[in-house]
């Protein structure tokens, strides 16, 4: 039986998860294993997203996959034989681990035939939404935004201010060229416990000198359904791809209200080894089973490394 969420869904029924990328930064692993199935300790990134989406009240994950990446969907399938074997051997905790993804949420596949960009990927999800779903929730599985709960705050802002709401994170000026960057202004009034700003504009991966701020988009979007119409009207942008950022910028220019919730917690980037490894160290250190031994091992590795590199 599917677990029902305690959270109010704020109308979020479907969460769109773009997962069609080639995972080039993880080759050779991603020759056969989709990046989204690489584990953080023992749980694939896509299952962490499924849990976050379920917590935000969603019932359905619309996973955008490339034609050759259908293994992602298998993760949400039934593994009756495996569960029966594990149960026979008394491994009930493992049975629960196997069944968790399926119990969290219904996953449906949307195939993006060609890698034409994040904007195009999100556009592919239109048919997966019910006709009366007026909000398009998007979670990028590369981004872990911790602790969970960003979407709930964003939904609260959308309930009060309308329009679309994104999640912003402050990075260093040297890092902005990797992200969609916001041009923001303060708003009157406040939300309890978190900061909200109005977005005047948004630009995809600008050079450091051209960036309007150091507040960047981190993988959580709560967009008005009008985004599908905007996505049909944009032309290829950064990298020759159809960019979600450009559709949001077009909506802003046309008077659509867009706000950001500034995330003050932690964030891991699972999209490349330099972010994936720290995520595993962080989750590992906090893991009841592996944490203590991992802590000792990491300290020893660091001491050895420092001895080899006295200049540090
Ligand atoms: C995408 C978006 C970018 C956003 C980033 C967050 O870029 O295009 O605006 O800031 O995700 O992780 P990507 O990392 O897919 O190149």
From TrEMBL:
Any keyword Nucleotidyltransferase? Answer: yes
Keywords, sorted A to Z: Nucleotidyltransferase, Transferase
* Record protein name field: UTP--glucose-1-phosphate uridylyltransferase
One Pfam family name is NTP_transferase
Q: What is its EC number?
A: 2.7.7.9
Q: Which SUPFAM superfamilies match?
A: Nucleotide-diphospho-sugar transferases
Q: Provide the family line.
A: Belongs to the UDPGP type 2 family.
Q: Name one GO molecular function term.
A: UTP:glucose-1-phosphate uridylyltransferase activity
Sorted alphabetically, which PANTHER family does this protein's record hold? UTP--GLUCOSE-1-PHOSPHATE URIDYLYLTRANSFERASE (PTHR43197:SF1)
Its UniProt entry gives the catalysed reaction(s) as: alpha-D-glucose 1-phosphate + UTP + H(+) = UDP-alpha-D-glucose + diphosphate
Q: Which GO terms describe its biological process?
A: UDP-alpha-D-glucose metabolic process
Keyword Acetylation attributed: no
Organism domain of life: Bacteria
């Amino acid at each position: 039986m599917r677990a029902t969420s305690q959270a109010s869904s704020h109308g979020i029924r479907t969460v769109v998860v773009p997962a069609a990328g080639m995972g080039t930064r993880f080759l050779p692993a991603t020759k056969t294993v989709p990046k989204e199935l690489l584990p953080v300790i023992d749980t694939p990134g896509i299952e962490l997203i499924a849990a976050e989406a379920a917590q935000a009240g969603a019932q359905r994950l619309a996973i955008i996959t490339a034609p050759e990446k259908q293994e992602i969907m298998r993760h949400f399938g039934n593994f009756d034989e495996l569960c029966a074997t594990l149960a026979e051997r008394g491994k009930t905790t493992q049975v629960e681990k196997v069944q968790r993804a399926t119990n969290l949420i219904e996953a449906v596949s949307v195939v993006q035939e060609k890698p034409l960009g994040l904007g195009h990927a999100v556009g592919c999800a239109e048919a997966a939404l019910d006709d009366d779903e007026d909000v398009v929730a998007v979670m990028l599985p590369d981004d872990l935004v911790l602790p969970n709960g960003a979407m709930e705050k964003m939904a609260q802002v959308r309930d009060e201010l309308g329009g679309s709401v994104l999640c912003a994170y402050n990075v260093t000026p040297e890092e902005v060229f990797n992200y969609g960057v916001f041009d923001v202004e303060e708003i009157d009034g406040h939300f309890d416990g978190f900061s909200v700003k109005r977005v005047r504009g948004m630009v995809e991966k600008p050079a450091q000198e051209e960036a309007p701020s150091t507040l960047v988009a981190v993988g959580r979007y709560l967009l008005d359904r009008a985004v599908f119409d905007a996505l049909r009207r944009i032309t290829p942008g950064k990298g020759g791809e159809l960019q979600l950022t450009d559709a949001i910028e077009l909506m802003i220019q046309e008077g659509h209200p867009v706000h950001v919730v500034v995330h003050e917690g932690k964030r891991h980037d699972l999209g490349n080894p330099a972010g994936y490894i720290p995520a595993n160290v962080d989750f590992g250190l906090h893991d009841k089973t592996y944490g203590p031994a991992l802590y000792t091992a990491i300290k020893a590795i660091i001491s050895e490394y420092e001895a080899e590199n006295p200049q540090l």
